Amino acid sequence: MKAAEQQSRFAARIRAPARAALPEGLPPARVAVYERLFYQSIESFVNGTFPVLHSLLPAPRWRSLVTDFIAEHHCRSPYFLDIGQEFIQWLQQGYRPQADDPPFMLELAHYEWLELALDTASAELPEVTVRGTPLSLQSRVQVSPLVCAQAYQWPVHRIGVDFQPRSAPEQPTCLLVWRDRQDKVRFMQLTAFTYQLVAVLEGGPQRIDSLLTQVAEQCGLTCDEGLLSNGLQLLDAWLADDILLLSDAS
Fold first, then answer.
1. What predicted TM-score, i.e. pTM, was given to this entire model?
2. What's the confidence (pLDDT) of residue 206?
3. Second label for 41, Cα 20 to 30 Å away, from 62, 174, 186, 222?
4. Would you say 52 and 36 are in contact if contact means Cβ atoms under 8 Å apart?
C-alpha cells in the first residue's frame, strides 16, 4: 500500500472509528490513542464554545453529536478557534435533526457562538476622542464593526437547565451583541424599533434626524419631538457604550 493511501486511511479512521476500518498493519491499541486524543481535542473546543447546549443534552447524545460532526464535516479552516463556526455551519447545512433534539438547538448554538466570534474578532475600535457636547440631531453616527444584531425565533438568552421552552413565542427575540473598548462582550435585548435602528446603521453612517425619521416611518410611528428627543438620548447612550461611533463626516 502506498504511503499516501495509508495516511488517508489512517486519517479516516481517527475521524470516524465506527465508520472506517482499521488500516492493515497498524496496531489497534496505538491507533486508539490517536482516536481518543483527536476526539478529545475537538470536543474540548466545541464544549467551550457551546456550554449551555452542552449542559442541556444527555452525555451520550452530546458525544454522538460531536462524533457525527467530526466524521461528517470537512473544516475549511485550520485554526482551532474556528471550530465553533465550523460546527454552526455543519448544524445549518449538513446535520440531520433527530426527533429528540431541542427545537431551539440551532438558534441557541448560534447565539453562544456569537460571543466567541466577537471576542476573537480582529477589528479594533478607533481611538476615542473627548466629546465636549452630547450628540445633536445633526450628528452622523455609524455602527461599531464589533456589533451584531440578531433576531431569533426563540428567547435564546434565557434558555438554560431551568428554562427550556417547547414552543416559540409569537414575537421574535431581537438581541444585540457587541464588544466594547475594554474587550468585554456584552448583550442587550432590543425592541423592534431599536433593532431596526441597528439594521439601518449597518448600511452605513447616518445623520441622526434622518435615521430616526426613517425608522419611525418603517415602524409606523409618528416622528414627533418626543420621539426625536428620546431617540437622541438612546443613541448618545449607545455611543458611550461603544455600540456606535461618530462618523468622520460629523
1. 0.88
2. 96
3. 186
4. no
Between the alpha carbon of residue 113 and those of residues 4, 103, 142, 219, 233, the distances in Å are 36, 18, 24, 30, 31
Band of residue 249 on the pLDDT scale cut at 50, 70, 90: low
Q: Which residues neighbour 71 within 8 Å (Cβ) at sequence distance 6 or greater?
A: 15, 16, 19
How far is 69 from 205, CA to CA, in rounded Å? 40
| Residue 165 Rama label (left phi>0; alpha psi -120 to 50; beta) | beta
Q: Which three cell numbers stand for residue 240?
A: 458611550
- Spatial strand order in the sheet of 244-246: 206-207, 140-143, 244-246
* 32-41 pLDDT, tens digit each: 777 788 888 9
- Contacting residues for 48 by C-beta, under 8 A, at least 6 apart: none
Q: What is the pLDDT of residue 111?
A: 97
The residue written with cell numbers 455611543 in the block is 239
- The Cα diameter of the chain in Å comes to 81
* Strands of the 147-152 sheet, one edge to the other: 147-152, 173-179, 185-190
Strands 140-143 and 206-207: antiparallel
CA distance linking residue 91 with residue 97, whole number of Å: 9
Place of cell 504511503: 3
Does residue 132 surpass a pLDDT of 90?
Answer: no
